[in-house]
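Question: Hello, beginner here. Any chance you could explain the protein record under this note? Any guidance would be welcome.
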Amino acid sequence: MSRPDPPPTDATPADAGRPVRAHARRNREKLIATARAAFAASDGTVPLEAVARDAGVGIGTLYRHFPTREALVEAVYAAELDDVTTSAPDLLDRLPPEAALRAWMDGYATFVARKRGLLDTLRTSWASGRITTPATRDRITAAIGTILDEGVRTGAFRTDVDAADVTAMVFGVFLSTASGDAPERTGRLLDLVVDALRPKDS
């Protein structure tokens, strides 16, 4: 005797998979957000079990998304780099170019400070090529260039400075304060970078 046909449904196999994929994506985003907060408060030694618990998922779910601690740190690095490198247009919508550049530098300083606690793990990623330093530098330079171009257009910045030059100056500030100098000194040096970009007759 043949079985009755299953009841009709509007869901195709592709449709049926979408809620699962959306749920997995939400779990991944929660894990990254939780890890970002945990690493900012401490460093890369935060137990992964604690990250999973605080994100409201099981440790198995964490390992499905991030098989190693390095994979989770790389995802946090990528998310925070995205925040920094995509923030220039929003800052320019709200602030004049000089203030936008200075606010962007503060955001980048926060990014750099957080990475100091994860350096050992990140070095492994850099050595393996999973995170490429040239690509990071290119994205930073592009963000700076967006603000510089607007500053040149409005007359706030001199016209003979290249975005790559400013990137080199900003990197120099952070290298010179890598030993943990007071944030006030970092801020003062970044102020000097912005001052150097003003037209010579201003």
